[in-house]
Every structure is written in C-alpha cells, then in structure tokens.
Amino acid sequence: MSGQDAEIQHLKANVSCAVLLERLPPVWRLDRAESTRRCLKYRRGAGEIVIVNHDGRGWWDPLSEAKGDVFSLVQHLEPGLNFAQARDVLRGFVGIAPTFPEALRVRRARLPRMPVAQRWTRRHPLSGGSPAWLYLTTQRRLPDHILAVAGTADAIREGPHGSAWFAHRDEAGLLTGFEMRGPAWRGFSAGGDKTLFRVPGGPGRPIRVTVCEGAIDALSLAAVESCRLDTLYTATTGGMGPATIAVLQQLLQCLASEPAGTLIAATDADIAGRRYAARLQEMATAAGVPFHAILPPAGLNDWNDALRAMTPAS
What's the half-sphere exposure (Cβ side, CA atoms, 13 Å) at 217? Predict the structure, then answer.
C-alpha cells in the first residue's frame, strides 16, 4: 500500500462524519428525538437532513440517493472541492470526537434494554377515553372511527404520559419499532428500526397506497378521505432508510401487478415534502407504478392541519 493510500484509510478510520456536520459551517444540529445510537439524524435549514451511521464512518441523505464515507460527505457539503482538497479538509479533523453523539449515548444508556416487540406488547391497546385517546381526538381531532380502524390493525398502543405509539412493521408484518407522539414531545423507539406505519382502509388487497411523513398525518388523510376501502394509509416517520425502502419496494411490486395500482405521495407542503415526493416518484417510476402527489389545501402545512381546519373543536 502506498503512503497516499495509507493516509486515505487513516482519515476514513479517524474522522467522524458527525464531527464534520458539527463543525463545518453552517453547522448541522442533531435531532435527538429522532436519533438512535446507530442512526444519528442531523438537520440544517429547511428540508436538509443527513443520517450518520456505522459509528460515524458512513452517512446518507434520506431524501436523495447521496451516501458514502467521510470523503464523499466533505464533497457533498462543499461540492466545489476535488478529492485532494477534501483530503486537506479532513486532515484537520483527525481524532476529534463528536459532541452531540456522545451526549446522546449517555442519555440512551439509561433507557431499558427491553426488545421493542416486548415493550409494545406490555402497553395497552388504544381504548376510548384514555389519555392517549383524548390527545388524538381533542388535540389532533382524529375521529373515533379512524382510531377504531387503526386499533383493529394493532397500529396504535398507549404510551406513557398521554402519548400514543404507532407501530412500524416490515414486509412480513413483524414489528420493528414504533413512532411515539405526545402532547409535548415526539420520538422513535430506542433500539428499533423504521420501516412503515400502515393502516388498511378496507379488508381487501389495496390498489392504492398513500405515503405520509408521520403516522398522525396518515390517519388524518384517512379521515379527510373518509377512509377509502381501496387504500393502504402509510407513513415513514421522516426520511427513508434502507429498511423503509425495502418495504416500499415490496408494496410497489404488489401495486405493479394491479391494473389500477397507484402510489400517492401525501407529503407536507414544504421544501422537504417536495423532495420527499420526488424520491417516491423515482421509486414508483422504477417499479412501473402510476404516481400522484397530493398536498394539503393552500395555506396548510400537513394533513393534520387539513383535518383540524375542517373539524371544529369540541
């Protein structure tokens, strides 16, 4: 191995992608609520997201195809740099430890190590009049019949402090993790993997799949559409990682076999939502499935805003 190759390997092994995001201006901020020890979500500006994985040695953009190692991250952040210039930048970060991930590890270490499936089964199914039910029906204005449909699918359970847990399941229907939303906080299950939240509108095989950014948005869209029987209402809880993409590709294969099969992007009405919809359109096109994008009414950001605008407060 040449000296140059040895230095490249040294930089890859000793410079964390998280450090670059924390220190290269304009800096990125860790989204603690949506980060786990294995996947650290960083945000910057409107709709910019980078996920750091592999203990800081890898990264990917959930709203595009961009991914790679620390060298490609430098060039992603500074597109005008060539490889040699990127190497010069990395030399200044050798051995520096990231700040936010270390704090996150300390906090996460205090959480129970119970498997996510066991944590899920220990919580009560959603029931009328519970704190979680009241949060969803009063603050979020989700109608009772939509929550009943979700309850039948075992898609929602009651979390602590009036929060609701929304199941993510893989291609086989196995629980992989859960989104957590409450009156004052949100997050994703520690140790869990994001796949897809899903609620079927009817008992048959769906020919229409809607993809929202969050579970409450998916349920809100189901309410706005009067819960169409031909539709599977889904949500990814933020950007799409490899496990989520695998589940969506499996759904697209099923839709491709249906003459009327259609994928619907029902994203937020912002920059991130448009990028998200574009990514879904690429996947649908590759699978040969018709695609449509729908947005909340003008002036509203997401589908829960749309539901609350058409539902008077009780």
Answer: 24
Residue 265 Cα distances to 40, 177, 200, 218, angstroms: 25, 22, 16, 11
Alpha helices in 92-192 (DSSP H): 100-109, 116-121, 131-134, 144-152
Judge whether 96 and 41 are in contact, CB under 8 Å: no
Predicted confidence (pLDDT) per residue in 237-278, tens digit: 987 888 999 999 999 999 999 999 999 999 999 888 898 999
- pTM comes to 0.71
Contact 172, 190 (CB under 8 A): no
Local structure of residue 58 (DSSP, 8 states): E
> pLDDT digits over 75-123, tens only?
988 888 899 999 998 998 887 888 765 545 544 445 556 889 999 999 9
Same domain (yes/no): 80, 174: no
Boundaries of domain holding 47? 3-109
**199 beta partners:** 233
What is d(CA 260, CA 257) in angstroms, rounded to the nearest whole number? Answer: 9
Total domains present in the chain: 2
CA distance 27 to 226: 43
